Every structure is written in C-alpha cells, then in structure tokens.
Amino acid sequence: MDRAIAVTVYMAIALLFSVALWYKVRDWPRFVAALNDYRIVPAALAGPAAVIAAALEAIVVVATVLGQAELGMCIGALLLLAYASGMALNLSRGRGYIACGCGVGDRAESRLSWYLVIRNTVLAVLAADVAISPAGARQLGWIDAMTIAAGLVCGVSLYAALEAAMANVGKGLAAR
Amino acid sequence: MMSGLIVALIVQWIVLVVLCLMVLLLFRQVGLLHERLGPVGALSLPGGLAAGEAMPRFELLSLAGQSVPVGGIAADGMLTFLFFVSPTCPVCKSLFPAFRALAREQGVRARFILASDGEADRQRAMVDEQKLGDFPFVLSTDLGRRIGVSRLPFAALVSADGTLIAKGLVNSREHLESLFEAADLNVASVQAYLSNPQLVKAQ
Q1: CA angle, corner B122, sides to B120 and B125, nearest 5?
Q2: pLDDT digits (tens, 9 = 90+) for A118-147
Q3: Which of B20, B36, B141 to substitute to test the interface with A, most A CBs within 10 Å?
Q4: Of B78, B88, B101, B121, which is most buried, counting CB atoms within 10 Å of its CB?
C-alpha cells in the first residue's frame, strides 16, 4: 500500500478509536452494562473485560501516535473483529435488541444490526491491511500532506453521514 | 503539464471535501425531519397481542411474594399499567422518575406493575437502587412474550375488562402518558391517531 494511503487509513482508525474511547470513559457504567448485555463474559468479569477493551483501544491510539502504526493497527483490527463477532453472535442468538455500546453520541443507544457487523469487518480489513502490507518508504511531500488531510476530512464526514443515514432507517418505519 | 495536474488535484480535493460535508449535513437534516414528523407516543411494534384484543389472565408472583393478577376482569374496576424494564437498560433508568410521577397522577384509576424477566437478584438490586419498592415487580417471560415486548422500555395498558388498550416502546415521559391518552381518546396507538384525519382535525 502506498504510504500516503496507509497514513490516511491508520490516522482515521486511530481517530475513531480515540473518539470511541472518549465516549466509553465519559459514561463508563453504561459501557460496562452494554458489555455485560453481550453475555460473552460472566457478569462478574464484565468490569475487568471493559477495562481490558478500553486499555487496548488506548494502546491502538498511543502506538499509532508514537509511530508504531503497524502494532496499533494489528491490535485495532483484532479489537474490531472481536466486536464484530460479539455482535454477530448476539444477533444470531436473537438478542439484537441489546444496546451496541459502540456508537458515538446519540448513537450509543443504537441496537445491534448486521450493518454494524459489516462496518466493523470492513474497518478491521483496512486496519489489518495497513498492519500487514509493507508500507512504502516513499518520502512524503506536500501533495501527500494534502491527500492525507483531505482524505481524513472526507473519510470522517462520510463515516458520520453513513451513521446518520443508518440511524434514520428505523425512524422512517416509525413515522409510518 | 505537471502544474496543471497539481492544480486539478487541488481543485478536486476541495470539491470532494465540500461534497462529503454536504452529504453529512443532508443526512443529519433528514434525521431532524424524521424527529419532527415522528409521532410523540408509544411506538407500537408488530408482534404479540394487538390493541383491543383480550389479554389472558396471568397469576403472577411479585418479587416480594404477593400474588399479582394481570389480565382478565379486574374486580376493582382499575386499569393495569405494565412497565417492562431491565436492570441493563439505561433508558429504563432514566424513565423511572417519570414512571413514579405517572403512578402518582393516575394511581386512582390504575394499578402500576413493573415487569421483567431474568435473574431475581439483579432485579432486586435495581428495585432498591431506584426506590421502586412501592410497585409490584413480576418476573415473567410469558407475559412479555404474549404482549409482544420486543424492545425495552416497553409499556402496556390493560382495561378493567381485560382488553389490551395500548402498548408500545416508550422512550420518554410523553410516551408513557400517551398510553393513558389512548385510553381517554379510545385510539389504540398514536399511529392510529395520526392516520385518522377526523381525530386530528378535532384536536
């Protein structure tokens, strides 16, 4: 993968994890409750499991910022896959009504859906790609800086737009 | 040639960034529109008993051990308000104050019952924490399944003769109150209300 693209991807994913981490820390009891609802770890271990998940997210962000993007993306991809499989497991158990605990802001209460599983899997593949494929050693110039900055803005706004669009899906049915 | 390409690249990035931001704004605006047009009332979801159907009688035991009859003909002529909650549902927690207020307002004509299923210990902890000891709390998977509780918090109102007046997903104080509105206006749900032009005009 070209270095400019790799940098754009890992910065975007690190940004996503830092925002997600911020929302978890801000309303910690809600995150623990949401994790407990997944019924993957015993209730007594939900607290420690939440700490581990948050710590791993913090490592993703810190490692990426400190220049260890491959390590950060490797952990990030595994985390995203773990979340996706947790959701898929609960969806197939028929427990799609539980809060996903993954969203940002108003979406934190959103229910599980296959859309979230697909979204996390796509993000995991992107992160894994950065972690595995050798980053080119190309010297980045100002054009690359522009590519990265504009790419980030586009990526973030398209991601947020997709979230907003998916949040509307249920509402459309409700008004009918 | 090179500078031409670079100029083109810059122009395209600018256009692309603006476009992406506009898509975001557009979807947010659509979301706002949905909220403004959406019903302010308990959202009736498909599944389970429909409003107007007779509710079978359930003889349930509360957490405190009292017998709590639900459905069937109520000897005292009172309505029965069922509030389905769970210790792990954050919205439920935020609705308990509104639930208590509603129980004070409507206490003369309705019995208020909390319902859930799952482990009794965690429910008891919630009852203590949220000071809900005044209300009978029943654990019954059957009750929820019969009424068609698919998401929490969920509320249902049963008349004295045992018919389901209204039911729905509740997310706010207005939603909780809307079930009593449904009883007063004799409409099953806010959806039924909105789709009846005469009622809307009379308002």
Answers
A1: 110
A2: 999 999 999 999 888 877 778 888 889 999
A3: B20
A4: B88
